[in-house]
Automatic annotation (TrEMBL):
Ranges where the Helicase C-terminal domain occurs: 225-398
Record region (Disordered): 664-694
Protein name: Helicase C-terminal domain-containing protein
Pfam families given in the database record: HA2_C (PF21010), Helicase_C (PF00271), OB_NTP_bind (PF07717), WHD_HA2 (PF04408)
UniProt entry keywords in alphabetical sequence: ATP-binding, Helicase, Hydrolase, Nucleotide-binding
Biased composition (Acidic residues): 665-684
GO terms for MF: ATP binding; helicase activity; RNA binding
PROSITE patterns: HELICASE_CTER
InterPro entries in the record: Ankyrin_rpt-contain_sf, DEAD-box_helicase_OB_fold, HA2_WH, Helicase-assoc_dom, Helicase_C-like, P-loop_NTPase
Gene3D superfamilies with a match to the protein in the record: 1.20.120.1080, Ankyrin repeat-containing domain, P-loop containing nucleotide triphosphate hydrolases
PANTHER family to which the protein is assigned, alphabetical: 3'-5' RNA HELICASE YTHDC2, ATP-DEPENDENT RNA HELICASE
Amino acid sequence: DEIHERDRFSDFMLAIIRDALPFCPHVRLILMSATMDSERFSQYFGGCPVIQVPGFTYPVKTFYLEDVLSFLHSMEDNHLNPADVSGNEENVELDEECMSSLDEYLNLALSYDEFDPLLELISSQPVEKIYNYQHPLTGVSPLMVFAGKGRVDDVCMLLSFGADCSFEAKDGSTALDWAERENQVEVSNILKKHMHKNAFKSADEQELLDKYLASVDPELIDSVLIERLLRKICADSVEGAILVFLPGWDDINRIREKLLICPYFCDSKRFIILSLHSLIPSIEQKKVFKRPPTGVRKIILSTNIAETAITIDDVVFVIDSGRMKEKSYDPYNNVSTLLSSWVSKANARQREGRAGRCQPGICYHLFSKTRAAALPDHQVKLLDANCKIMDFLEKTLDPPVPEAIRIAIVVLRDIGALTHDENLTELGEKLGALPVHPSVSKMLLFAILMNCLDPALTFACVADYRDPFVLPMAPEERKKAAMAKAELSSLYGGCSDQFIVIAAFDCWKRAKDKGLENQFCSRFFVSSGTMNMLHGMRKQLESELLKNGFIPDDLSICSLNAQDPGILRAVLTAGTYPMVGRMLPPLKNAKRTVVETASRAKASLHHHSSNFKLSFNRSIGGALIMYDEITRGEGRMYIKSCTVVGPYPLLLIATEMAVAPSNDNEIESDEDFETSDSEGEDMEMTASDKKGDKIMSSPENTVSIVIDRWLTFEATALDVAQIYCLRERLTAAILFKFKSTTNPVRLSLGYQL
């Protein structure tokens, strides 16, 4: 069901099932959706039959940007009337019985002057597809019949409904031609006057639209226009909730604050302004379903979460900004992108339908009719890059671009899951047995070796699902939420978004065991539902590790170092590598530091990160951070979750480590390591020549260590030799654990660990 909501899992399933169906003739596959591209799915399955099941929605009148600008231009006119609210639904589908009746009633009116059946049908269902209906053989419409018969009142009624005068019959004649042909002078004058008025109206609308688009960027959300439209709806109607679709949290928050300080909307006795977003507390989300008291208007500011997931039964008006936030993957820059984009026609139809779920309604699309016609039919998401081989991916409905597949293979090779000829290694088979990202699987195995499994399980589940914190609405509550996060951060030494989540889960579990779950969630702004989901995921992951022999029945011995921040940072580094960044000191005129990555990309710390304040610390330059992903937002790249780490975990886990002569002849006595400003690629990358032998000959000599050809540290030759030995021992221990999951690590290796 809901097959249009595609992701990599559903696409992989479809590819596998399509291959299996010829060998399983008894199996029947049914794909269902109210808005899917049925022809495309039918072709994918070899031209399989399509069954249309008619459903019922109430009629919804639709307006576009030029309509909105027009009636906002003349604020004194009421743009709503009973016909608008009860009819004019463009999406009502006529069934065979209705079309057969219309054909019969048109013939009766035209040939026998029996008008009552046709008038009764139109009056009972004044929707566009009925009053603009054309006979399939002759092309005759109700307006043409009434115009030719001189039925003045009936012609005026159809024009008030919105009947189109420009429609042509099969012989090319219009309603005006029918009136003039039958010498119906009064009807002719009415039609001419109506057409003249509409021509001027269209020209005026186009002029307003051109002026508006010349002064406003249509890619951005116009909060002024939305506020004016909300006022107009409230002035022209008595009741009915208003649902406003916006791209993301920033737009919701900005418009909400704008409305709350507006003298018109700030009166809580007249208006309730609510936000609907996946990250706000569930108690706040539930408020959108409650009907307000009589005389109070409910205004809901929502993301596309309200498109299909929920039904708010008192919504009569929908304002569609036409924009949505969509997360995708940019394979050419190896970053996730979270950008506002135009919705598809399917999204727009879903949004319209929110106004007609339980009663007739009205939808205002804040984009032009021209834009509406150019929208893509469906939103097609690029598959994630966590793929295996090209042959399989080419079978999917929308294969990833080759560059995305190439980068995925590089990642899997880097963590040791694939060989160079794209075969699974022993490690790859072990990683594939766990239902998480391969990098996270490797981190879990590393955590087992380090006796630090419990926090690693939490981090793995959060990485696969979401963090549990909610976004409070009031400014005072936001300050309390920030203080609560700071308190949790201190439990593991601070400077880590990931540690905050781990601390929150540990504290939540203890509170739940004492029956204090609700109090904890309220104080620390945590979602109880998300925590319980993470709790269930952890149990599933534990059982998978146990089933595959990675852990013993007694889990307590796997978490002896769970409270050690140093080991925990090493485990986290193992799970996020090679996502490492170096904080650069701010430039002369800049206020904030930036993070440089191995590809020399520059990113900022997101203001939601607990490490955001580090951005303003000028002495922080050179610090290392591990992050989960870089996201490109509106005009910038940022890191939302990160942890500050020291050099040791990176030196032990990095793919490549080389030694070069130090730039300094002496090393300061109080420094074992320091971050160098030197660029790694400007140095000699090997220690095998005579000069390398010379600098390594004395234990006290200062040398430079270059990690992955870009990060440079200073150390003594003795330190470097010990690190090399430890790296080899660590690799040997991990390989031993992979090959012999049930046997304990040998004593010598265990000592090194």
